[in-house]
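Appendix B, example 12.
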Amino acid sequence: MKISIPVEEGALTAPVCQSFGRTPLFLMFDTETEKHEVLDNSAAASQGGAGIQAAQMLADSGAEVLITYRCGENAIEVLDAADIKIYKAQDGSVAENIAGYKAGVLKLLSEVHSTQNKG
């Protein structure tokens, strides 16, 4: 199982980044090998549609799970189409969130952030 998590630094001890589409990096953790890799989020510098582009990048990478604090409605459509399950991150490190997912403690993300009326 490939788990993707937005991060500002590529370490299991790092906290989960508060942003999804504009996170600088995604940590990709493979539950079968217990190894991780870090992907640069090229969408972070986009003028618009960063969430959609980040979601497509995760779909292309083979991610099966996303652990994040929040996600916009357009990005969720892309993630849903790719059958990527979205879980709500908890305060703590990437490793703690992965452990929470494995233990069944994390809940599916239920709040969708609207992309309308943003200025």
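The radius of gyration is 13 Å. The beta strands are 2-7, 25-30, 35-40, 65-68, 85-88.
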